[in-house]
Design goal:
This protein is mostly helical. The protein contains 22 helices and 5 strands. The chain has helices spanning 4-29, 49-62, 70-77, 80-87, 113-119, 132-145, 147-153, 156-174, 181-202, 233-247, 265-275, 279-306, 315-329, 358-367, 374-386, 415-422, 438-441, 472-475, 494-505, 523-533, 543-550, 558-561; strands at residues 351-352, 429-430, 444-448, 466-469, 515-519. It has a 3-stranded antiparallel β-sheet. Strands 1-2 form a two-stranded antiparallel ribbon. Helix 13 (315-329) runs parallel beside helix 15 and helix 20 (523-533) crosses helix 21. The N and C termini lie far apart (56 Å). The relative contact order is 0.07. Residues 31-36, 97-103, 105-114, 348-355 and 536-574 have low confidence and may be disordered.
Amino acid sequence: TNTPADRLSILMAEDQRLRLEQHQEQLQRGSPRSQRKSSIPKPSEQLFPETARWCLAAIRNLTRPCKDATAAHILITSGTYALILQYITILDTSAHPENGANSMPSSSHVDRAGEVIKDFANEPYTWDSNSMQDTALSIIMNLSACSKSREYMNDANTIKVLSAITEYPALLLKYNVDIRDEQREQMKFQGLKARMTLSYLIGSEGHFGQAKLRPNASTVSANLDDSPLIMSDSDIELLLELLINTSHRRGKDGPGGYSSATFTLKYILFSLRCLLTHLKNQQAIVEKVGPKVNCLLIKALAEHALDPENSTLDAESAEYACFSLYLQSNYGFEEISFLPSSFAPPGQDQEIEETSDLATKILVSYLKLSNIRPAGRHAAEQLLLRLKYLNFKAETKTMVSGFPPMNAVDLEIDEDTKKKLKSVDVGIRTHGAKPSIEIFRRAILRSRKPRNGTETKAPWNNLAMVSLFPSALQAVQQLSYGSIKVRHADPIDDIMIANHIANSANGERTESYNFLWTWEDKASEIQRNLERQTSQEGNNTSLFNRFSRSGESSKQSPILRLSCGMCSADTTVV
């Protein structure tokens, strides 16, 4: 006997077949745009729109992230997922079927603001709270957050539909389309939900510190293929606001609002962790709201470390918080403060005594947990090694200005937690290596060493053997936690590895981890030397020729250089 899911699957398959036949007949007849039926479900065209809305709400509740992917499997195999995706498809394919269901319109279709409004028949600024579109996007967000269901839906269709939602605000701005303030707030909130959903789909596996580690796994090699992860300024502000509100069990009223139960802290931290797999997001978050985000992360970590039984976080969530803090600390050595002064180490002595700072005690408490995960342990250990050298000059009272609105108490450790931290014994701990100034902002090249003289040309002239990193500190990732390139006999110290890399690039005889290193700003000089020593064979494909043609200056931001096609996807083989 067929189950209800089987019968639904049969009905959906028949419905899809009939829809395809109807669409093909319309194209063959060349029916005018005004007579084509919209590919987007509209409440005004439905017999029972309220019933549809309640059904979507029920599915949303059934798909809240969990380890059981039964609901996701049924939605996918029955064809219901494809229908749900149509609710958030913003471009009406009946208007321009040549674009496909998931493509942004070509420039010829958006020459005027009126054309933009006409083509986008499902504008995100109309997706009010609990509308069918808002609920459908929440369903897809729920499915994406769960690893068991993600395997059913991580396809190009879903990613293109979600990317179109995130790109829509910029399109309206470009063509000066005017909408009301409340509509703009609603549109930005739906864009954030779409971006968070993309973060689960694209940034959740195979990056530095994550499961299913690739040989070239790092936040550096993500830059070219993972561009849908790149956050806008409004995404960053709204994500910070969401993190503040959810951390303190608050909701938000008005357009773009939500209840205190709409989101869970775990999956906001998970999204942040996934978004930070992209270097541009790391840099943008640090420059815009870095110390604020870091305060919220270490507060969440403290609550979990000191009272894991009653914490709103679990071991996974704590790992997301700690690893995010670790990635952001790469930018906290110089001008930008990592955390406020209240977290700072007490002095510059070689040993840190028992009366040490809040940050040390929180991290030590976290390391003592029995269920700490490996990536979280690595992150905490690296933070402890580098605390002495990080910038703790900010003051909480000066950090609360601007958007989103917040109070100093939102960023501070509460008194009860401070009392618990007083009893934490950190013992005697040794600081890590002191960072060289060269490891931060100077782009660096890495090449595989020639094997026993088998290479006929110098390695820097072989594009397949050379990788570019924005700094020596970023180059460490592929040699650090989870690396299959380097086996460490001693405990890992990322800063020490970065110092060795920088020294090697300077021509010093030091540990080079079986690679050759040189600074990117020496590329022209190296190329001139190569031209004197080698024939012209293959010079047109040289990495350095590409540098010189691009006209890039070493004064440019190394982060921006990676967006020009010269990402550091690692093609080396050890």
